[in-house]
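User: what does the whole thing look like in 3D?
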Amino acid sequence: MQIRPILSTLRHHKLTATLLTLQVAFTCAIVCNVAFMVAKRVQRISVPTGIAENELSVIHSVGIGKGENMQARQTTDLAALRAIPGVRSAAAVSYSLPLNQNESSSGICPSKQALDRAIQLNSIDGSGCVQPALYDGTPGLIVTLGLHLVAGRDFLPGEYVSKGKPAVAIVTRALAEKLYPGRPALGQNMYDGDNFIRIVGIVDTLLRPALRKPGVDADSMIWPQRPDDTGVTYVLRSAPQDRQRVLTAAEAALLQANPNRIVDPQQMQTYTQIRRGYFQRDTTMIGLLIASALGLLFVTALGIAGLANFWVQQRTRSIGIRRAIGATRGDILHYFQAENFLIVTAGVAIGALLAIGLNLLLMTQYELPRLPLWYLPVGALALWALGQLSVLSPARRAAAVQPVVATRSV
Amino acid sequence: MFGYYLDLAWRSLKRTPILTGLMVLAIGLGIGASMTMLTVLHVMTDDPMPGRSAQLYVPHLNPLPLKGNFFANGYDPSDHLTWPDAMALLKAHRARRQAALAAGYLLVRPAAADLRTFYVSGRYTTVDFFAMFGVPFEHGSSWNEAEDSANAHVVVLADSLARKLFGDTDAIGKMVRLGENDFRVVGITTDWHPSPLFYADERAKRYADRDLFFLPLSTAVDLNLNTDGSVDSWGKMPNGDMRSATTAWLQFWVQLDGPTQAAAYKRFLIDYSAEQKSLGRFQRPATDATLYSLMGWLAHENLVPGDVRLQMWLALGFLLVCMVNVLALLLAKFLRRSGEISVRRALGARRRDIFVQFGIESAVIGVAGGVLGVLISELGLWSVRHRPDDYAHIARMDASMLLTTLALAVFASTMAGLLPAWRACRVVPALQLKTL
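Assistant: Here's the predicted 3D structure for the full assembly of 846 residues, as C-alpha cells:
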C-alpha cells in the first residue's frame, strides 16, 4: 500500500480533510474525558456502606403529644415493630444513617495532647484529631445494621445512656487507623474535649451520612446513646422481598401503639431507596454522559461515512481508471481504508493533546482528578475502529466500480 | 432572486436526501442538547423579582474571628447575620425598608377534627418584609410595627394553608395553633413564591420551597420556635440562645433607591463594622463589610449546581462537533458542484450571487435543523422535568428561549455554511469548464 498517492489526494481536499480531522480530534478529546467522568461517578455510586443494605427499611416518627417519656415510647414502639412477622430485628436511631444526609459530627482526638496541639494550631488538620460522623442508637443497632465487628465487642446493656455522653464507642477500621496509626486502637481512650471515650469495638466499614471526600468518608463512630428527641428513626431488618410489606405494617403498628404522632410517608423507605436517592444526581449524570458520548461517536461516524461517500462518488472516474490499469478491488478498498486511517490518526493525535487540555480545564472547575494516560490509546483504538467501520460501506462501493467507467464520460 | 435560490436549494437538497437528513439531524441534535441545558440555566438564573430586583440588597458583615475553619459545611457562616447585628441594622433604619428573616418549620394542629396534624414551612420576619417584596394580600394585611416589637402572637397565612385550615370561610381574626401556641390570623396572602426563593438560605430547596406562614421574628425568638435554616456558632457555646452575638442565622434584606443610596448604605455598614471592631466584637477589617445586589447575591450563592453547568458545557461541546461535521459535509457537497458553479459564473453570475445561493442553501438546512432542535429540546426538557431535583419543575421553554433556539440554529448553520459558500464562490470557472 502506497501512502504517497493518498497524501497527494488529501492535499487536494485539504480543507475538508482538515475539518474531518478536527471533528475526530474534538470527539476524541470529549469522549476520553466523558468516559473518565463516567468511571469516576460509577466508582462513587458503588461505594460500600458496610451495612446490610438490601435487608433494611427505615421509618421515621415524630411524637406530637406533650410531655411524653421518649424512652418508654421507643421501648413500646420497638416491641410493636419486632412483633411484625418478617422483622428479624429493629433499632432506633436519632436521625443518622449512612447516606441519608443527616449527619452529626464532632471533633475527636486520640489523646489530650493532640487536642492541645489542635488548639495551638487553631485547626484540626495536622493535630492528629479527626472529625468523624457520630451514630447513636438503641441496643441491637450493630446487629440490625448488619455491621461486621472485626475486633472487640458490641455495647453492654449498662453502657447505654439517654442524657449526657457515653463513655465507650465503636469505631470503624478507617477511623481507628487514622487515630492510632500503627497501634492497636482497641481499648484506647479518645478525648473529645470534655470526656474520655474508650474504644470497645472496631467495625469493618460504616460510611458517613454525607460523603465529603474519599479519605474521610469512612470515618465514623457509634456510641451507645439512646435517641432522646420527639423525632426518631426506626431501622428494621427483614428479608429483602418483605421490606415493602414490613414498612406498611410498621406504619400501622406505630400508629396503633400511639396515634399521637406523625409518620411521614416521604421518610418511609427501604434502604435501597435511600441509597438511590442519595446518588440520584450521579445516576442521571452517568446516563447523560453516556448518551452524549454515544451521540458524539454517532455524529462522527455519520460524518466520516457521509464524506467518504462523497469522495467515492467524486472519484468514480479515477477509480475506474485505476481499475482499468490493473488495480484490484482490494487495492481500491485498502486505498479508502488507509485514507481514513490517516485522517483518524491525525485526529486522535490532536485529540490526545486536546483531551489532556480539557482535563486540565475540568480539574480547575470540577475537582476532577488527572486523566489516566491509558484512556488516550483506548480512545484512539475506539476511534480507529469507528472510522474503519464507517468507511467500510463507501469503500466497498468504491471497490465495486467497474473498470469500464474509465472509458465513459462522467 | 431569493425565491429562485430557495428553489435551487430545495432541488439540491432533494438530490441527496440522506446527506441532507444527516446534516439536519446533526444540527438538530446539537441545538436540541444545547438549548435544553441553556434553558435550564436560563430559568435557574432568572430574575425572581422583575421590576423590584434593582432595589433589593443584602448587607454582609463579617463577625467571624480571624482564626478557625468556618467553611467545613461548604458555605460562609458570615452570609448570615447574628441577632445583635440584625437588630442594630433594623434600628438604624438607614434604608427605605429593611427586614430580618429566618426559615421556620412548625407543627400545625388544626381545630377541624377531620384534619391530622402536619408540619408546614414558613418565615419568621419583620414587618417591612411584605411591602419590600410586594407580597400580595388577599384579605387583611400584615401585622403592624407595634405588634412587630411587642412579640404579638399574630400570623399571616398563605392562601392554600388558610383554605386547608378554614375552608372557604374568612380566616381573618381566627386562631391557629402552631407548635404549642395560638396565633391570631391577621392577613392572607395569595400563594406567592418567587422562583428561586431568593431570600431563603442555602439549606432551603430554593427552587421548590414556598412559605405558607409568616410570623413576627421577635415572637419566634421569644417563644424559641423551631428554625429551619443554617445556624452557625463560634466562640463559647451559646447553648441554643438565638440572641447570642456569636451565632449567625438571620437573613437580612434592604430596599434602597438607586446607587447613591446603595453607596451610602455600604458606607454605613463599614462604619458599623469599624465601631464593632473598636468595641472588640469584630476582629476582621471593617472594609470586609459589603452590600450585594439581589442578582449579585444569587451569583454569590451559586444556586446552579456544578453538574448542571457541566451538562451545559457538554452540550455545547456536542454542538461544536456537530457544527464541524456539517461544515465538512457542506464543503464537500458544494465543491462537488464546481461544474454547476462554473456554468453559472460563465453565464454571468457574480461571485456574490454564488455566495448568496449557497448561503441560502445552508440556511435552509439550519431552519430545518432548528425546528428539529426545538422538538429535541422539548423532549430534553421533558426528561429534565422528570428528574427529582428541586429545579426540575421550572425547566420549561418560554417564548424568548424558543426564538433563541431558532436563531441559534440558523446562525450556527449559516456560520457553518459561510466557509463552504465562500470556497464555492472562489471556484475558478475556466478550469472546471474544461473538464466538463
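In plain terms: The CA atoms of residues 99 and 209 of chain A lie 4 Å apart. The interface with chain B takes residues 13, 15-16, 19-20, 22-23, 26-27, 30, 34, 62, 64, 66, 122-125, 131, 262, 277, 280-281, 284-285, 288-289, 292, 295-296, 299-300, 302-303, 306-307, 309-311, 313-314, 365-366 of chain A (CB under 8 Å).
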